[in-house]
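Troubleshooting log. The previous structure file for this entry was overwritten by mistake, so regenerating from the original sequence record. Sequence copied from the archived sheet and checked twice against the printout by T.R.
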Amino acid sequence: MNPKVKNVLEWTYCIIIAIALALFVRYFIGTPTIVQMYSMFPTLKPNERLILNRIPVTFHSEIKKGEIITFEAPSETDVNENDIDMSNPVAKYDNKPKGIFKNFVYYVLEIGKTSYIKRVIATENQHVQIRDNKVYINGEEYDEPYLDDSVETPANGPYVDLVVPEGCIYVMGDNRTQSTDSRVFGCIPLDKIEGKVAFRFWPLNKWGNPDKK
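Regenerated output below.
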């Protein structure tokens, strides 16, 4: 084989392997992400950099209350009252890509995909109630030590008194008055979760667990 051709092939193989490994790590193990909105303020602020841990999602580990996660945004975030079905209070996901290539681009490369970052408030089979600007889980006021005492939780949506269906979670942003979340679009299926927030690496003076003030 011509040495030049052999050299090109070797570099091509190396590049392909490197890209495959990078995609594997990004999709199954962990990936960096950037906060873009104010829904988790002041816990997380726009332009802060985070590392997402995808291992719990890869191995279907338990998602716990209080954890900060990212997930695929529902296709409908402003639900029409006529479309509300309280017997199945699950967020709608109608924009499904068709074909292997489009699925790869959307789910692996995440091109054209919108993600939300919120906090897990309740898990499957738990009764969520939002009343008097507070959150109740199974009839008891939910203690949220990560929130300032002044934070109130308005019942600004149709999904504010429900039992979380199996295979789903109920999420809200810490900035309760400025967050579009499960109160508005319903519960999130577990298979739409992308990862848990492992730690914040930027800015450097806030390195570590986002919940540590």
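The mean pLDDT is 91. Archived copy saved in two places this time.
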